[in-house]
Amino acid sequence: DAGVIQSPRHEVTEMGQEVTLRCKPISGHNSLFWYRQTMMRGLELLIYFNNNVPIDDSGMPEDRFSAKMPNASFSTLKIQPSEPRDSAVYFCASSFGGDNQPQHFGDGTRLSIL
Amino acid sequence: QKEVEQNSGPLSVPEGAIASLNCTYSDRVSQSFFWYRQYSGKSPELIMSIYSNGDKEDGRFTAQLNKASQYVSLLIRDSQPSDSATYLCADYNAGNMLTFGGGTRLMVKP
C-alpha cells in the first residue's frame, strides 16, 4: 500500500522565493497534519485538517505560511516569502479520524533557504 | 501547556541488553500513547501504541503505561545496533492532535 507521499524531497531556494510543499495522504485517511522538525525545536505541529477543513492552525508561525487541502487526496503548504529561519524538514502525516488512530508520516521535505 | 517530556540522551546500551526509554506527560485526560522510531535523516515510524494501563508486548518491544503516574515507557529487549535511533513518545489530546516529546537518542553498541 502506498504511504503518505510528499514532494519535493529536497528544496533549496533563495530567501524571498515562494516555496510550495505537496502531500498526498494515505487513501481513506480523513485527517492530515503538517509538521516542521528542527534540531532546536523538535517536531512541531503546524496545521491539522479533518475532512479537508482546517481545524487548528495555531502552530503556523506567521502569515507567510499558508496551507490548503482542496480535496481528500492533496494538500499544500506554502511559504511566501521564504526566510533562512524556515529551513527545516517538513513532514506531512495522515490518519483515520479519532483520538486512538496513529498518524503515518511521509518521508518529509528537507527545505534549505539560502 | 500540555507537554510530553523525555530525556534527550544519548542512552547507550550494549548489544543484547534491555533498553528502557521513559516518557512523562502532563495532560491527565490523555488516553492514547504512541512510540515512534526515527532514524537519522528519516521520518518518524510508528512502532507501538498503548491505550490501557499495564504492558503491551510486540516482539522485542514492550510498552508500559501508568496513567496514575502519567508515565509511559518502552522496553527493547535484546537490543541490536539496528535499534540505534531517536525514539519519540507522543500522546493525543482531546483535539485529535499529537503532542510529541523531544525524543531520546538510543545508541546500541556492538
List keywords for this structure.
heterodimer; A: 114 residues; mainly beta; B: 110 residues; 6-stranded mixed beta sheet; 5-stranded antiparallel beta sheet; 0% helix; globular
Can you put this structure into words, describing what you see?
The complex is a heterodimer of chains A (114) and B (110). Chain A has strands at residues 5-7, 10-13, 19-24, 31-38, 42-50, 53-56, 65-71, 74-79, 88-95, 104-105, 109-113. With 114 residues, chain A is mostly beta strands. Chain B has 110 residues and is mainly beta. In chain B, β4 and β5 (45-50) form a beta hairpin. Chain A binds chain B through residues 31, 33, 42-43, 45, 48, 50, 55-56, 91, 97-100, 102-108, and chain B through 31-32, 34, 36, 42-46, 49, 51, 88, 92, 94-98, 100-103.
Helix-strand layout with pairing:
The complex is a heterodimer of chains A (114) and B (110).
Chain A: E1 5-7, E2 10-13, E3 19-24, E4 31-38, E5 42-50, E6 53-56, E7 65-71, E8 74-79, E9 88-95, E10 104-105, E11 109-113
Chain B: E1 4-5, E2 11-14, E3 19-25, E4 33-38, E5 45-50, E6 54-58, E7 61-66, E8 71-76, E9 85-92, E10 98-100, E11 104-109
Parallel strand pairs in B: 2-11
Antiparallel strand pairs in B: 1-3, 3-8, 4-5, 4-9, 6-7, 7-8, 9-10, 9-11
SSE sequence of chain B, one letter per element:
EEEEEEEEEEE
Helix residue percentage of chain B: under 10%
Q: Count the strands of chain B?
A: 11
Mean pLDDT of chain B: 92
Main sheet properties of chain A: 7 strands, mixed
